[in-house]
Write a structure and sequence with these properties.
- The chain is globular.
- It has one domain: Rieske [2Fe-2S] iron-sulphur domain (Rieske Iron-sulfur Protein, 3-layer Sandwich).
- It contains no helices and ten strands.
- A four-stranded antiparallel β-sheet has the order 2-3-4-8, with no helix packed on it.
- 0% of the residues lie in helices and 44% in strands.
- It has 101 residues and is mainly β.
Length: 101
């Protein structure tokens, strides 16, 4: 696939995370200190929506059962051998582009 335009950078302010649908995939997009990251939205534990979780620094906590993920690499904080998919992102002008391919 290719990069797809999603939302404006202003819609994901620094220190926040949100859910998006990109090419039929649920993606959690996070803004960590002005840098944009995208990971699969489904928690590995029970499929909880990571984009609805709380973001502290670069760690998102799943709102369902508290599993934590590093949004910069998708790894589970307590077990780095497990991870959700990460997707390449680009900021072009004011828009966030994501490649879920």
């Amino acid at each position: 696939m290719a990069f797809v335009r999603t939302v404006k950078v202003a819609e994901v302010p620094a220190g926040t995370i949100r859910e998006l649908q990109v090419e039929g995939k649920a993606v959690a997009v996070a803004n960590v200190g002005g840098k944009i990251y995208a990971i699969n939205n489904a928690c590995l534990h029970r499929g909880g929506p990571l984009g609805e979780g709380s973001l502290e620094g670069k760690v998102v906590t799943c709102p369902w059962h508290g599993w934590q993920y590093d949004v910069t690499d998708g790894k589970v904080v307590e077990n780095p051998a497990a991870a959700v998919d990460c997707y390449p992102t680009e900021v072009r002008a004011d828009d966030i582009f994501i490649d879920v391919g």
